[in-house]
Write a structure and sequence with these properties.
globular; 269 residues
Length: 269
């Protein structure tokens, strides 16, 4: 094969890999049917009734949607949502699938949406990163060390976490590094529903992390148990084992969502 000076896909098509300044405006490379998080859409014209509410409630495999018939409200728990899209297919007049990523919250209950549109975060990835870098410099002395812990995940979240270090996002430019030991970490980035077999290991990792330490629950499984829930093999989310400072929902959350959550975590100190 003739060398062109560019990296090539396995298909033989040339492409260039470079760090982008604003991944939030990658409209040309994002498919029209890409699923961000689901939200209730008050801009649509619909009449909520018991039939619609119960239908959505029964469709959701993780029970992220609950219908309050006394108040005629739909409660959507983004901490449980796995973005399957069943609700959108069944009730497009009510549910909207967005491309939003800024869903990290400091309190578990704040992940529950009740007929409210999320206010979009207007800053770019670079602006988020620079703000994070300034806070890291002030609080941690130019660096922030993260220990990622897999507490029984399917590795979907790990793929997005790994993407933070690729040439596109290049999170190390903001002074953030991943370390091999919790003893060297400032933040624990935990994925998975916390299986029974990982419960003790997670506690040990938490106790080994020096203060001040931050715990971030990454993905629906870490936030609530996700598709696994709470059963004989899982604990139903990591906050039943260790204190959680930040919840980042999604299945899995995008790299932008992760950097947003880390920024929120640093603000918490």
């Amino acid at each position: 094969m003739k060398k062109s000076g560019k990296a090539e896909h396995f298909t033989g098509m040339p492409f260039k890999s470079s760090t982008i300044k604003n991944p939030l405006k990658m409209d040309d490379s994002v498919a029209d049917n890409y699923r961000g998080y689901a939200t209730l859409d008050p801009d649509k014209d619909f009449i909520l009734n018991d039939e619609i509410g119960k239908t959505l409630e029964n469709l959701c495999p993780t029970h992220a949607i609950t219908y309050q018939n006394d108040d005629l409200e739909i409660h959507l728990d983004n901490g449980k949502c796995i973005l399957c899209g069943n609700c959108k297919v069944e009730s497009p007049e009510l549910i909207k699938i967005t491309n939003k990523f800024d869903q990290a919250k400091k309190r578990r209950e704040d992940l529950i949406e009740i007929f409210s549109m999320f206010v979009p975060f207007e800053k770019t990835y670079d602006e988020l990163g620079q703000e994070l870098k300034n806070k890291i410099n002030k609080i941690f002395g130019r660096s922030l060390a993260i220990r990622e812990i897999d507490a029984g995940s399917c590795n979907g979240c790990e793929i997005e976490i790994n993407a933070l270090n690729n040439p596109i996002y290049d999170i190390e430019r903001y002074g953030i590094t991943f370390v091999a030991s919790p003893r060297h970490a400032d933040i624990l980035l935990v994925t998975g529903p916390a299986s029974k077999n990982m419960e003790k290991a997670l506690k040990i990792a938490y106790d080994s992390t020096p203060n001040p330490k931050i715990v971030i629950a990454v993905g629906a499984c870490a936030c609530s148990g996700g598709i696994f829930g709470n059963n004989y093999a899982t604990t139903g989310g990591i906050d039943s084992i260790v204190p959680v400072n930040i919840y980042i929902p999604g299945c899995p959350p995008r790299p932008q969502a992760l950097i947003y959550g880390i920024l929120m975590a640093v603000n918490k100190i």
